[in-house]
Amino acid sequence: MARSFQKLNEEKVFKDPVHRYIHVRDRLIWDLIGTPEFQRLRRIRQLGTTFLTFHGAEHSRFGHSLGVYEIARRVIDIFKYRNHWDDSETMIALCAALLHDVGHGPFSHSFEKVFGTNHEEYTQKIILGDTEIHRLLEEQGEGFAGKVADVIGKTYPNRLVVSLISSQIDADRMDYLLRDAYFTGVSYGHFDMERIWRVMRTQDDQIVFKLSGMHAVEDYIMSRYQMYWQVYFHPVTRSAEVILTQILHRAKVLFHEGFRFKYAPFPLIKIFKGEMALKDYLKLDESVILYFFQAWQEEKDPILSDLCCRFMNRRLFKYVEFTPSLIESKDQLAGAFRDAGIDPDYYLEVDSSSNSPYDLYRPGEEGERQPIQLLMPDGTLHELSQESDVVGSITGMRRTDVKLYYPKDRVFELSEHASCREQIQKILGI
Amino acid sequence: MARSFQKLNEEKVFKDPVHRYIHVRDRLIWDLIGTPEFQRLRRIRQLGTTFLTFHGAEHSRFGHSLGVYEIARRVIDIFKYRNHWDDSETMIALCAALLHDVGHGPFSHSFEKVFGTNHEEYTQKIILGDTEIHRLLEEQGEGFAGKVADVIGKTYPNRLVVSLISSQIDADRMDYLLRDAYFTGVSYGHFDMERIWRVMRTQDDQIVFKLSGMHAVEDYIMSRYQMYWQVYFHPVTRSAEVILTQILHRAKVLFHEGFRFKYAPFPLIKIFKGEMALKDYLKLDESVILYFFQAWQEEKDPILSDLCCRFMNRRLFKYVEFTPSLIESKDQLAGAFRDAGIDPDYYLEVDSSSNSPYDLYRPGEEGERQPIQLLMPDGTLHELSQESDVVGSITGMRRTDVKLYYPKDRVFELSEHASCREQIQKILGI
Amino acid sequence: MARSFQKLNEEKVFKDPVHRYIHVRDRLIWDLIGTPEFQRLRRIRQLGTTFLTFHGAEHSRFGHSLGVYEIARRVIDIFKYRNHWDDSETMIALCAALLHDVGHGPFSHSFEKVFGTNHEEYTQKIILGDTEIHRLLEEQGEGFAGKVADVIGKTYPNRLVVSLISSQIDADRMDYLLRDAYFTGVSYGHFDMERIWRVMRTQDDQIVFKLSGMHAVEDYIMSRYQMYWQVYFHPVTRSAEVILTQILHRAKVLFHEGFRFKYAPFPLIKIFKGEMALKDYLKLDESVILYFFQAWQEEKDPILSDLCCRFMNRRLFKYVEFTPSLIESKDQLAGAFRDAGIDPDYYLEVDSSSNSPYDLYRPGEEGERQPIQLLMPDGTLHELSQESDVVGSITGMRRTDVKLYYPKDRVFELSEHASCREQIQKILGI
Amino acid sequence: MARSFQKLNEEKVFKDPVHRYIHVRDRLIWDLIGTPEFQRLRRIRQLGTTFLTFHGAEHSRFGHSLGVYEIARRVIDIFKYRNHWDDSETMIALCAALLHDVGHGPFSHSFEKVFGTNHEEYTQKIILGDTEIHRLLEEQGEGFAGKVADVIGKTYPNRLVVSLISSQIDADRMDYLLRDAYFTGVSYGHFDMERIWRVMRTQDDQIVFKLSGMHAVEDYIMSRYQMYWQVYFHPVTRSAEVILTQILHRAKVLFHEGFRFKYAPFPLIKIFKGEMALKDYLKLDESVILYFFQAWQEEKDPILSDLCCRFMNRRLFKYVEFTPSLIESKDQLAGAFRDAGIDPDYYLEVDSSSNSPYDLYRPGEEGERQPIQLLMPDGTLHELSQESDVVGSITGMRRTDVKLYYPKDRVFELSEHASCREQIQKILGI
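^ inputs. structure came back:
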């Protein structure tokens, strides 16, 4: 690919609290950032409902996307310095880094659960479909957009480019761990990114790490583990997520039942009908969702109104561990809820989180990620858990946390259903 | 006031990136944070449109309000340790610190400009009116809400309590300088808050500073100055603010002209009519505004649609210095705009920022703030600029920055009005 | 003990990069810091030879001692707030925290190895012997010094006071991990100290940790593990330590052989003879050692002179892993060294480091430390590794690193002993 | 100069708390760092006696020298990226940056005052004389050492290279402000170095700054001002400096009087005689000085012994402002001291510090530094104080602080000379 990309007359920068500055030197990158599809990421929080647990976590996917781009840019610079990089891949890699999350919608997790959408599919559609991003990419040469999409979709032939964006230690994860730690304010999530960059080597089309940097990699693995349990799987965040899911679910049910909304959710109707087009999807952001949640507090349906009121005012569900004895009593509990006039379909929800600090075969969230390889002084590769005592001892370990969420306040208010209340309290042990 | 306030069984904390932890030990504080009126601050950004310049500045007034409370709490602890504090004022001061910004609406600056509302009035109304906050405060004793409102309104008789919340170096400013520096990522805005706390003394019902801490105070004054010019008055932020103001203005004009909105702005109609009640005001947040701005991109009115499109996609106005020669040519410029079919009422806007690093008589944004007094070793008070060479030399200095904002892209597209374009370019020097 | 301790008229502070400020409110603490015995800690580096690996690690035991005092002070404040603390123990605990390392000499590790001294014994002697520290302590009441010494010696009856200063998570370790990370600049060593403080509870005379803080404790354990391997056991530091030990050893041997030093080491002569008194010990600091090492570069003994030259100019030994095959060849290697004219007693040294990230029975450096107990919601105590998957999987794991140190430069210069050189190179695999 | 410099096979790094990593890619730089003359900087503190005021300030000139090199390296990289740099000057500039302080001796300030030496002269001698550094430099080509010396001596023809190392905003000052702030722990001294780098331009052989970066430069000027008064001129540090000077002065006097030292200061004798050779100078470091100060506590001369005891145990002189009325009474005061048996030549010392935050003509410590030039959008240069209100208002302002130091403890102990004591107390107002 002998294409040459236009440079900006003068480097542009974004002030960034995590990387100090994001540097942009290519016109294409600058123009992609300016598209409506990319600007929309400013209106989608990086961590969904986490801001209700950690009030600092109000940062959006916009800053994260810039951060992933910046890390990719710096790592490629190091690879180029060592002559380990094919420069004709640079712009493809940078675009993929910048755009890897562009298909995310508002509160993706809940949204996808209720409507069966998939943000990765939308990322592909945005890059390949009728968008400004697509037009800008194709101006670089026919098929360029497809290559960028392939990198993100992990089907691109150059595995090195793919692994820069998605692997056990990729630009995406490095940015989000540091960024989410910064904005939440937690002391986990820090690791020596520059040292990891310096021990990165490329071999057989994959990124490997010099043995001498093993401790920095260990530290990254442990940071990731702590961030999962301390931040990403925090039970209060999951409670907010449960309510959010139920609201979307209830609205969809009501719509199909022909409910007359006081505030009809125009932007959501097509998704209720399962016929959402790309241009409709691109109009969705967290403002739309929050606007309707706010408005729906006044709807006549008591479930929709109550759940919206809970979400907007952070009157969340409480939780208990979903122990084996509770599993046995779940039907009985649902019955007691129903008798007391609380619909268990909306007010009793089991939520499960599961994560492994490091797994040889299923090492991350997604099954297909490759294990981390260390480059030994003799040039051979050893899988991390063989060399690291700490990682070795936790490899394959899987921790699961299952909780039952319910509205404790409603249970305590059940004065007219005292026996139901007592039964519920007994089962839940509250 | 012999009232005793209920303590929480166990201290609660919020993880905060600026102060590490916010500590809550009083039930009243905890309950106030849980009210819908306070939770609403999560949906109002601390720095309005600044996130379009510094992408990290997505933090809300919620975190800032907790931060002001926390600083007040810690300073009061120090005062108590030195027996300089009347403990019966503690809860009044803490409530005032927590609630001082509760009346802010979405994008207050523009909003107040167009609709003539005032966030300080709304703070008073929320504390004194029909709200959960009011009920919680009055449960502490009749008149308690009034006292809290008086502290915020600066009419409370104990001047020490007032100056803790609003003075040259108050809990409000200390928090926002540190917080805004943290989230934008700029290196200005840092100062040694703990040292300032340690040299704070109370004398004649005001907070004064030991001479030995003068340098820390100087540093704070300079930090504040830099934050004003580098962050708060950033011309790109002001450009976004100009557009936002024009959108609200246009929507109001259209409403009064009987324009048939495709997306009728229900939550704003009362404010268009000038008859907004407190409960309507409390429904306003940035989601509402952004929802309509997004939707209005499809309205038939080309001005409204274009401005909304600009705001949502960050296609902002450019600017030139509003020099004396430009002042003279302004009418001519407006004429050329009109001839070219660009309405100068919406597309040509002068914006002015003005600030003084330290002023003896009008030392801050508001005229009435008192000068900073240093406590000399002999017990007398000297005004800061008398002792500090640096502050002395900049006292009374006022810097004003006036810029003219306009849509550069539109001007360059004026192919059918080439002569207008040339005239405009000549006047603007572009 | 109804003794009342004199407060300072005004709190004094030390600016500290780790804890921001060290606060001193008691005259006794202030006076202890001012004693010659305590000031001497300014001339003894916290991390011995580590500054030759991490150039930032030039900090002394003086700052660390203040830091341990400050942590103890803050933790006691929290315990007092919760009524978990007997205030009559406060000054004993603070003095013990401040003085726990006062017996350290220059480069303690090597020094103790060669001369058989023990810094813990000297700490006891300084507190109980003829010193200013002793006089100040005894002014507080007869037997007060003894109590302070007992806390440091872990024989004090109140186990809570002991465990504040020496346990798995004590003020000593919390300070040194944070401080050493700060000065070396490594990103390991950070953990959420304030959270750990907040989940600390006292039960059965020991410090336990609420289950909800388990992750912060895990993070501390992992930080400690990383600091051991990345900083404390760094092979370059150990190389410097090996040379230092050999210098002291050589000087001692030469002294006993009646060698005529050009620069006679007056301050060390008594220790060579094994008859060092407390007042002689207190004259030793790193300046003394470095002064003689510098001077001894000019001594006629080639071993002493060469080793000193190496230490002063950082021409350290290189190392190889001490593998089983190398163990077998060690005698052969020593023979080849001897044949080549390099004395293996001084130029071939095996050094071993060993550490376990967490051990139930021998959890720290010293055998007697108690395991970490978590306080469960039902009030029972569970040992950490039972609850923490991560800690559970690494409990009892022990990692040992043995290296062989030798002067690579000398080996390569062996032109006149080519066959020795080849043999050595073959054995060492270099 | 078509010389090509040897690269290292693999980049080497030093972990640095200020710049994260110091990167070394050239064999020459690596070898220079390894010379005895450069390693000696590890034994000379960056801030002399400041560690007695800020206990964290124990860092040496070694780390600072690496830091200056690293800043120069990064700035040159930026200049190269913009084609503003003649690459044949790179190694000269890097060597000059690394070696600019290599002539510093122990406690230079006092040392030079008493012995009339000059560290800048010694820097020249070390680069040009019989040293390992000289040999390494000359291996790069004859005359190379001379060029490096010329850059440091400011006589090198390429002014751009000179101004990188010594100007108002040079690599030296940028490093020391950030480094000294880091190690002392003060919150002053921070500024946005990366932004300053980015707005640096080269014009007419000097470094200028784009107008858009003016605020970052302002912030740097103010940081520097605060560091001077809060750290570098701290009165406690100056008190230690006064005592140190008096010790050296006393030892010299005693030597010339034929005093029989118990601990004869071999390494200092030549300097007492004024005939110190370079190789003798290179043996001096702080260990030597501190070793003798420690030992001299036992000398029979009461002045020497007392002053050494004060320095080692931090029993410093107190101070009062040297007011005009005190100036008048100085002789009287000296008389009272003499009558009371306290030698005013050693125990009564006036010390003066003077600094200007920014000066057009004498802008720094040294008279010859050039003013800071801003590069305007039209390509012209404007001197900083013309454009910056803040800097403009403080330009030329000079602040001087004169204090009188004396041993307060001795004065209060004057029980046998009650009338002297009263007279002294009256004059000093204590």
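Chain D touches chain A at residues 11, 13, 20-21, 194-195, 198 (CB under 8 Å). The two ends of chain D are 66 Å apart (CA to CA).
thumbs up if we can close this ticket
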